[in-house]
Specification:
Helix content is 1%, strand content 58%. It is an all-beta fold. Strand 3 and strand 4 form a beta hairpin.
């Protein structure tokens, strides 16, 4: 490759010799290909991008040698492929070889006749990546949000793309340009009047059960929830994970910054939420009223090994606001258990997680009673050599 002279100072160079059978001769008198007609990139999740570029080749009847080489960029050689698009039935790719110690490869292509052929060369190019950001603005009544999605595209690959069709794994392709060392912020989606629900979430695993005993007030995490579906003016593609900045629009049309959160990856049909802060106007207290062991199993020494436990608990919820709220209550019961009497309807997220959606009117207080049995609790590490008796 020391004898090859690049026609232009570009980072990727494709060179061809037409009508030659011997590769060694082809690599001593190379001429440049026509400029690429079209370039498309598919952005990956880990800084590796699939590049697909189309060019028009003038092929001679017989064997044509195509030399593909690159410099100052990181291409995975094993990912490079060549596909014929115009006359695939008249053209065959005979072989591909990799010259030693060179960033290059050589194809031998057989053509049945003289013709112009559109080809597509694909390869994986490193050091192009992206992040997704969002801007969400609520209406004054906190019933809907306007959501803008931005793609921050960063190119440190060494290659310039003057005009390129870019796409992600989700969403529609878009046209842009992105030069080496450039970072560009692109608006890719804009949705208005997405219905939201303001939800206050109390998680029994994370929140104190007796907040009145603490020296400082306990805030209940508050978020806007919405569903990624057509009824919400969404649902065309999954929502990608990314940072979101939240604003509230007042009655004069100005916006107030509420805070930042991260949108989780949300498939079509799933629910997501944006955390906007903590509310101290809702108080949740949980008390264990009674526990009772039953179905006790002992070993030969009379020590308790396994038992069931009947538990009674009470959760008191109080809304100090002048407006109604929806409280999402998450209760976790580890292990194997059976409900005996639970006073409110719930959704069972998994085998141990219960979610109660409780509507509290202004200044209202409600009580949730839970009566359940936890099965097969081991008093200590159980040995398979222990013999259990009643």
């Amino acid at each position: 490759m020391a004898a090859i002279k690049y026609i232009k100072p570009v980072c990727l160079s494709i060179l061809i010799l037409l009508g030659s059978i011997i590769v060694s001769q082809a690599r001593t008198s190379l001429v440049s290909l026509p400029p690429r007609q079209d370039v498309a990139i598919r952005l990956g999740d880990h800084g590796t991008t699939l590049v697909q570029e189309k060019r028009i080749l003038t092929l001679k009847k017989g064997i044509n040698t195509i030399d593909f080489s690159w410099q100052s960029v990181m291409i995975d050689p094993a990912s490079i492929t060549l596909a014929t698009l115009s006359n695939p039935d008249k053209i065959s790719i005979l072989s591909v070889s990799y010259p030693p110690n060179e960033a290059a490869l050589v194809w031998d292509v057989s053509s049945r006749e003289d013709l112009e052929e559109k080809i597509m060369i694909s390869y994986l190019l490193a050091n192009i990546d992206y992040i997704v950001t969002y801007r969400a603005v609520t209406d004054p009544a906190e019933k809907t949000i306007d959501l803008k999605s931005f793609l921050v595209l960063r190119n440190f690959s060494g290659e310039n793309f003057d005009t390129v069709t870019a796409s992600l794994n989700f969403g529609n392709p878009f046209n842009t340009s992105i030069h080496n060392l450039e970072t560009k912020r692109i608006l890719v989606s804009q949705k208005q009047k997405i219905p939201i629900k303001k939800v206050y979430t109390w998680n029994a695993l994370k929140m104190p059960h007796e907040p009145e005993k603490l020296k400082t007030a306990v805030g209940i995490p508050t978020s806007y929830e919405f569903i990624n579906n057509k009824d919400s003016n969404l649902g065309q593609t999954a929502l990608l994970k990314g940072k979101a900045r939240l604003f509230a629009r007042d009655s004069q049309g100005s916006t107030i910054f509420l805070g930042e959160d991260r949108v989780k990856f949300t498939p079509v049909g799933d629910k997501t939420g944006l955390h906007i802060g903590d509310s101290r106007d809702i108080v949740v207290t949980q008390h264990r009223l009674d526990t009772k062991r039953t179905n006790i199993k002992r070993n030969t020494n009379g020590k308790i090994q396994v038992y069931d436990e009947i538990i009674k608990e009470q959760i008191i919820m109080e809304n100090l606001k002048d407006t109604p709220v929806i409280l999402s209550l998450m209760e976790t019961i580890p292990g194997q258990w059976n409900p005996l009497d639970i006073s409110m309807a719930y959704e069972q997220k998994d085998h141990k997680t219960l979610i109660f959606s409780v509507k509290l009117l202004a200044k209202e207080k409600k009580t949730l009673s839970m009566h359940y049995k936890v099965l097969n609790i081991f008093a200590q590490k159980f040995s398979r050599y222990n013999r259990v008796v009643n």
